[in-house]
Write a structure and sequence with these properties.
This protein is α/β, with parallel strands linked by helices. The protein is built from 2 helices and 7 strands; from the N terminus they run E-H-E-E-E-E-H-E-E. The protein is 21% helix and 31% strand. The strands form 2 sheets. The chain has a 4-stranded mixed β-sheet with strand order 1-4-3-2, covered by helices on one side. It has a 3-stranded mixed β-sheet with strand order 5-7-6, with helices on one face.
């Protein structure tokens, strides 16, 4: 257990929008809802969980950008190329923009099979085979 990631907490601009997006995506990855409260929700997989919390109104004017200091992206194991292809199709059906479309699914290099996209707050997300 030592060194294994325990949890990640992410503040979001619109909790309802993030719950819809992340609830679907994390469900596809095998996560389930662990806790819910008025200002947040957590999803768990094994012993690792991801928490989404509604940012306070006084902080909504500060924009997030993955190229600034802080978190650049979250990457998840997809388990197979077939899963990456399936989730890519589902993301497109949901109107989610695929990043690096001209290089997809090899944007990480010729031997790296993945899909890159953004969440509702424009945080980059990656799912790799």
């Amino acid at each position: 257990m030592k060194g294994k990631l325990h949890h990640i907490e992410i503040y979001v601009k619109d909790l309802n929008v993030s719950k819809e997006f992340w609830g679907w995506l994390l469900g596809e990855l095998g996560y389930s809802v662990s806790q819910q409260w008025e200002q947040g929700i957590s999803y768990i997989f094994d012993k690792t969980y991801i928490v989404f919390v509604q940012v306070e109104k006084k902080h909504l004017d500060v924009s997030y950008h993955r190229c600034k200091a802080g978190l650049n992206h979250l990457a998840f194991h997809g388990g197979s190329r077939a899963f990456v292809d399936d989730i890519t199709s589902k993301l497109r059906d949901r109107g989610v923009k695929i990043l690096y479309e001209d290089q997809h699914p090899y944007a990480g290099g010729p031997d790296y099979y993945a899909v890159f996209f953004e969440d509702p707050d424009r945080m980059k997300v990656e799912i790799t085979a």
